[in-house]
Amino acid sequence: MSDPRATPRAKPSAKPNGTPVVEETSWDRFKANVRTIGGAVLLAVFIRIVLFEAFEIDGPSMEPTLQHGDRVVVAKMLYGLFLPGTSQAVMTWGGPTLGDVVIVKSPADEVDIVKRVVGIPGDVIELRGGLLFRNGAAIPHEEVGPCVRDEQKDESPSCKVYEEEVGGVRYHVSQDDYYTDDMRPVTVPEGHVFVRGDHRDRSNDSTNPMIGPVPVSRIKGKALFIYLSCHDPAGGFFCGDFRWSRFFMPVQ
User: Mapped to the 3 state alphabet, what secondary structure does 76-127 carry?
Assistant: First the structure.
C-alpha cells in the first residue's frame, strides 16, 4: 500500500511520438545568449571593417558640399579592403570615378581627409589663376552667388560659390576672389587619383606637393550620405543644435 503522505514524482513529458522532452537548463540558456550576442558582435565588426564606416567632417575644406559638423556614411567595399589602424588597403579591386567624394589616408600626415576626385590615371591636371584644368581644358566653373554665412565656416566677405562639372558630375565649390594659385601640369600615375577639396583656398589636397596624386590603396571609401549634421560638433551626438535639413542628404 502506498503512503498517501509521499510526494508524487513528476513524470518526464514526452513528444507525441514518445520521445522524452529534455528541459532547457539555465546553463543552456546562457550558452544560447552568448552565441546570439557573439554573432551580433561579429556581424557589427564585419560591417565596420568591410562594408560601412561613419566619418565626421572637421573643418571647411569641402564647403559647401560638406559642412563642418556633418557626419557621413562611407561605403568601404567599393575599392578594396581597408583594415582599421592601417595606412593602405591590404587589397584593392577597383578605383573611384571622376566626381566621387572619397575618404583618403593622407600621405603627408596619415590623417583621414575627405576630398573629391578630379583626375584619374593618365589625366594631366594643372592650375591656372586658381582655375582647374584637366587634359588642357578648363573644368566648367560658373558663379552661383556669395557664400552663405550660416552654411560655411569660412566667413570671408569675398567668398563665392561656383558650379563645376567633371566626369558628368555637377557640384558646387567655393573660393575667395583673391585665390589665383598656379600649379604646373601633373600627370596622374597609374593606380593613383588627383583629389581636391571643394573649398578651393582652404583645402590641403593633391595640389600640395606633400600629398600629390594619391594611391588608390590609400582610399578608405566613398562618402554616400549625411546621416547627422550638427552646428556644434564638440557637443557630441546630442549637440542640441542640429541642421535638420541636411539629415540623409546624399553627397554629390
Answer: CCCCEECCCCCCCCCEECCCCCCCCEEEEECCCCCCEEEEEEEECCCCEEEE
